[in-house]
Design goal:
alpha/beta, Rossmann fold, Nucleotidyltransferase, domain 5, 2 domains, 8-stranded mixed beta sheet, 6-stranded mixed beta sheet, elongated
Length: 462
């Protein structure tokens, strides 16, 4: 039994049982997964680090007497090392505060040996770069950080990590502590629907931890994001999937993702979203932001659309236009699409001049023909223009070939009701997809009412 002096020493030292908020400590129970869904700055890293160290000290050996091993997995090895292990709220800070001896080994297999020569329990850490992460371990516990950002979250859990949680502990069973900002990925949605007691859930807001955060930053965050979807996700820990008005849902993006594109492509285009500078249009030789959206998309014979590439750039003016045409050439596109009411005459001229310059270099065929540019006429608001594209995603008719993290983040975080502007990559994607959709109508007028398609590998006949 601890003496009163020991308890006072721990209070002075700021032990976790004394400083933690109640919701930062997992509840009792027979759960397998404790899921922390919270905004940035809530204290997820500190909670995870304290928990994994505490579990290691409580259960340093399995029933056979062998030292236990635990896993700490971040989105990348760098994240696991810099945030979960070496960060200001990381495992090393916890061990140092508690005066626990350890050996920190960075290579070749990153790990921390707790009380070497005595307990010898090991905490391995790494990145979630493969569904096989965690395979081969006999783990007693796992701390999984920012799982919503992992490349293969569900496969990594089902195929790698969950089967590894099989250590035979005395007095308990292996558990997983999951800390993440919420995004509506399949695995999180599945855990949220559990009613069998296997998943414990706690939600939290950035402002729950206000006492430990800069008041100036909190004020700025509230001013910038209060009332927006991104604020409700990143600050208040809500699932965007459940919010009204969201056009692009993560489940639709993830559920229709493919590894390779179609064998037959009927049209390929590059959508471009340059924005005007803060000056007048006459002097708009550069764009307001330091990034121009450049997204390549294609359409197959089934009228399914594929997002091929996100080549957005921080270039401006002539260099940005040359970059857009270089992307056009590299992906063998048929058209370059832009919104006509933003740039008006000057935008068309900048792209035309860049095209002519590349003609002289021999990149494009010589001649006085018009550059293959197409205008998206902006006679509707951004929400109305994006809605048909959002419907296509919901219907499963738009596919991402691989992952486009920045584009997808803009898509699921865009609040069409409260956001005054839509972001560059998103706009470029919408321009490209709308152009391909308009092409369907033109094709329908040319073809007979009865369309007969020849089947190709992987596609059925229509």
């Amino acid at each position: 039994m601890r003496q009163e002096k020991d308890i006072l020493d721990e209070i002075v030292r700021g032990e976790w049982w004394w400083t933690a908020r109640p919701e930062q400590i997992p509840p009792p129970g027979d759960w397998l997964v404790h899921l922390v869904l919270s905004g940035r700055g809530w204290g997820k890293s500190r909670a995870g680090a304290e928990w994994i160290v505490d579990r290691t000290l409580k259960y340093p050996r399995d029933r056979s007497g062998a030292p236990t091993e635990r896993l700490v997995i971040g989105e990348t090895l760098s994240d696991a090392r810099s945030i979960c292990v070496e960060g200001p709220s990381g495992i090393l800070r916890v061990l140092d505060r508690r005066g626990i001896k350890y050996k920190y080994i960075r290579n070749p297999k990153p790990k921390i040996v707790i009380a070497p020569g005595s307990l010898d329990a090991v905490i391995y850490f790494g990145g979630a770069d493969s569904p096989d992460v965690g395979r081969g371990y006999n783990a007693a516990d796992a701390w999984l950080d920012e799982i919503a950002k992992w490349q293969y979250p569900k496969a990594s859990w089902v195929e790698g990590i969950m089967p590894s949680l099989r250590a035979d502990l005395i007095g308990d069973h292996p558990r997983a502590f999951v800390t993440t900002t919420p995004k509506p990925i399949d695995l999180l949605m599945e855990w949220l629907e559990r009613r069998d007691g296997s998943v414990s859930i706690v939600r939290g807001s950035t402002f729950d931890n206000a006492a430990n955060l800069s008041s100036h930053v909190l004020q700025e965050l509230k001013l910038r994001y209060e009332g927006t979807s991104i604020g409700r996700q990143e600050l208040y820990g809500e699932m965007l999937e459940a919010l009204d008005g969201v056009l692009f849902k993560w489940a639709d993006i993830e559920g229709n993702r493919v590894k390779i594109g179609p064998e037959v492509v009927t049209h390929r285009t590059v959508g471009v979203d340059p924005t005007l500078s803060s000056g007048d249009e006459e002097n708009s030789s550069r764009w307001a932001t330091d990034e121009m959206g450049v997204v390549v998309a294609s359409r197959d014979h089934r009228d399914h659309v594929y997002i091929v590439a996100d080549e957005s750039t921080r270039l401006v003016g002539r260099e940005a236009a040359l970059h857009a045409w270089a992307v056009f050439d590299r992906y063998q596109c048929d058209s370059l699409v832009y919104e006509d009411n933003l740039g008006k005459a000057w935008m068309r001229q900048v792209f035309t001049d860049a095209y002519r310059e590349l003609q002289k270099r021999g990149v494009f065929p010589a001649g006085n023909h018009k550059p293959p540019m197409a205008e998206i006429h902006a006679n509707q608001g951004k929400q109305l223009r994006a809605e048909p594209v959002g419907n296509r995603y919901e219907q499963g008719r738009v596919h991402h070939i691989g992952k486009f993290e920045k584009l997808e983040a803009q898509m699921i975080q865009w609040d069409p009701v409260n956001s005054k502007e839509s972001p560059d990559r998103l706009d470029a994607m919408v321009h490209a997809v709308r152009h391909l959709m308009d092409g369907e109508k033109r094709a329908a007028r040319i073809l007979s009412a009865r369309k007969v398609w020849l089947p190709t590998a992987g596609n059925g006949a229509y």
